[in-house]
Amino acid sequence: MFHVESYAGNREENYELLNKQLKALLEGETNQIANLANASALLNQFLNEVNWVGFYLLEDDELVLGPFQGLPACVRIPVGRGVCGTAVKENKTMLVDDVHQFPGHIACDAASRSEIVVPIVKNEKVIGVLDIDSPVTSRFDEIDKKHLEKYVQTLREFL
């Protein structure tokens, strides 16, 4: 396994390789929990400067904690609250440079400074989110956004 910033190739190439690794890892497996667990573990190994990588799954009007890597987390997040709930409500990727400046941010880990949340859409409905936190302000950028959205597109084939 390699980290995106330390591998010899460029970030774009590294993300493409990560996506291929995800597909190979999940090929033939249909269990949603197993696939989300491996997807979060793969990202946790791949990304530098992250302190939480995981999934929340939509149940009624709440996101419920799914497989993750990191410290214990908030179990339930109402749609529309915090970065994750806002991503679901707006059905768009949220790229937050400083979570302390985000209105209504839910602090599960006080060390988190920046966050990216990508909705998982299947059959035109949001079914959950990929949530990644970093202890570094402005950790995530448009390259991360683009490729994490592709990662989620690949993942949803196995959910």
Q: Which key features would you list for this structure?
A:
alpha+beta; 6-stranded antiparallel beta sheet; 159 residues; 6 strands
Model description:
The chain is α+β, with helices and mostly antiparallel strands and 159 residues long. Helix content is 35%, strand content 26%. It is built from 4 helices and 6 strands; from the N terminus they run H-H-E-E-E-H-E-E-E-H. The protein has helices spanning 11-26, 32-46, 82-90, 142-156; strands at residues 52-59, 62-70, 76-78, 94-96, 114-122, 125-134. It has a 6-stranded antiparallel beta sheet with strand order 3-2-1-6-5-4, sandwiched between helices. Strand 2 and strand 3 (76-78) form a beta hairpin. The longest helix is centred in the N-terminal third of the chain and has 16 residues, at 11-26. The model has no long low-confidence stretch (mean pLDDT 93).
